[in-house]
Request: fold
Amino acid sequence: MARVLKAAAVLGRLVAFVVVSAVCGALVAGIFMPVAAAAWGATNGTVQFFDDLPSELTVTPPARVTSIVAADGSPIASLYSENRTPVGLDAMSPDIRNAIVAIEDYRFYEHGGVDTTGILRAVIANLRGDRQGASTLTQQYVANVLKENLIAQGQDPTVVLNGQKDLGDKLREMKLAIALEKKYSKDEILAGYLNLVFFNPNAYGIQAASRYFFSVDAKDLTLPQAALLAGVVNGPSVYDPTAHPDASVQRRNLVLDAMLKHGYVTQKQHDDAAAAPLKLKVSPPHQGCAYAAQAQYFCDYVLHQILNDPAYGKTPDDRYATVTRGGLTITTTLDPRLQGPAQAQVDATAGANPDKWGTSLVTVQPGTGKVLAMAQNTRMLPAQGLGFVTTYNFNVDRTDAHGNDLGGAGGFQPGSSAKPLTLTAWLNEGKTTDEKVNAAQRRYPLNHPWHDTCAKVTGAYDDTTARPPWNTAPDLQNDEPNWYRPMSVREGIYQSINTATFASAAGLSDFCDIQRATDALGMHDGEGGGRKLDMSTLGNLLGGMNVSPMTMASAYATFAANGTYCTPRSITSVKDAQGNKIGGQSKDCHEGAVKPDVAKAVTNVLQDVLTKGSGYNIKDNAGKTIKLGLPDAAKTGTNQYNSETWLVGYTRGLSTASYFGEALHNPEDHLGRNVYVNGRFWPVIDGAYIAGPQWAYYMQKVAGLYSHGAFDAPPPSLISGDKHDDKHQDKKK
Reply:
């Protein structure tokens, strides 16, 4: 390698070139500095201008690909504005390094950033009418860095991109190139150039280009492949092998000629490579959650949270730039062992689904709040395997607590799966599960004496006022006529008796305890925006409000965790391109949100749902009840139109909300009665019938992966009211 010229010598030769240009009267049209030098005055003025130019170049990291990954590191999705994966020079084929030097700057290892020999040669060639440039690889690298800096700052890089540079631009590049050579080694500059340079709208840098055009890594490029890519950089659109194969091969062979001329290949290597056919194996990159390798909608939920969080940028545009240019690694809570079965199950539930019924599953881990799986039977783009296409996420709120978009559908009516709220309030007051209430009472008039300390109870169920001007609901009804009788609170829950729930609410010392229990369980309006559920509205006791499946799963997870409520979280950590942790969601749990003994008693009742209550109707096509074979607890739910149906249930280690219904439109307009679903006729749809098997089949596959032992027994004082049994139980502990 020839001795690198000292910066002073380079400057001297550069000034000599400027003098030559001044003598000629202008830098000849067509040379790499197209604007007339006369515009800059005499030679001494140009030298002064050169001296005043900055010599420091800030080499900011180029735009990189952001990766969203599952808890085990498996890929979910990539996001980028420029598809680029920087690699070291040792991860690039020697052929690509030699090819780019041979064709773009064969004196690269001899000059000090500006090739004065090349400049004078270009001047003479241009005076003769031959177009010839003289920018070195270092100068080209400087130009690309300047362009990237402008983009990173949100400025217009057009001047750099379209080649309309004036003399000042070129002199600035020269001086910066000289300074760059003093700061970095030749190999560092070459690596920087190859990682930065534009090959194709789908490929920035040599690694991305290798993957895009040939489906190989940069280190595995063959000589013909390397020569072709080295030729592309001179004119990415002109020499695009996918659009202009003949032109790209001609350019490749020109690169091979240069490699032979400068001693990088032998004659035989040259001839074999020049004779090689163009063999592309294009791998178009797919970016964004719509092209996620798994869990499209979970990915979208994660991305919305990042873009809503000021920790990643002051403005939405700043945060978008951080995500699409920052090369982040976003590690999530998703467990692919659960996600795969969840997706397979929701896709299977409704089958061909011409009526566009929505199905979904979401699983939260009790005691941590980690969202482990999130699936629904739609796709974000057409032709992705299902005819049901939407960007709405069935499982999450429409907005976050601050009103920022989360992409959610806004929740659904949980029906009777909201009844455990009243049960929790009942137990919080020290009442028992086995106490009997008057479920025969159907009328709760406008003047009913509810015991409330926080808000006036609104609504009524009364045939006598179910007309103008009162327009109340008629007398309260159960699903079947033979349940209007006194019964225990426990039986009222596991048989899902509406009149028993109302009798429990009427028996509370303070109706407002239902609101307190609802808030403690993290229940809120599916629209988001920090809206609470108004439990002073009587219809909400039976699930008349809209709640997202993830909120339901998190509430029931509180029972599984013996009263510890955890805010659901999906992002474990966010690291920048250098591997530094810059964000993530911390565990946010509230021990005792519900009294532990109360939570245990609720679980004890909900276990009966699956053994002798409404959950007993969770059956397979042969009519056999589907059982997990593990300790489990659950509650079904159905709205009054049978168009929004649920089963929310849990083991010790997993809490899952299963939904089937009208997910996108008015539930009143799509009744779940006399309908065909997946080839089967249903006179009426109930939470146990479709959402139930969906939950059971899924949980059968995954429940064993997490804690699945017996639930803790509740104190007898909350079951039968026997205080003596409480003391006996304490002694046994």
About this structure: The CA atoms of residues 140 and 663 lie 54 Å apart. The chain has 23 helices and 18 strands. Confidence is low (pLDDT under 50) at residues 1-43, 159-163, 724-733. The two ends are 82 Å apart (CA to CA).
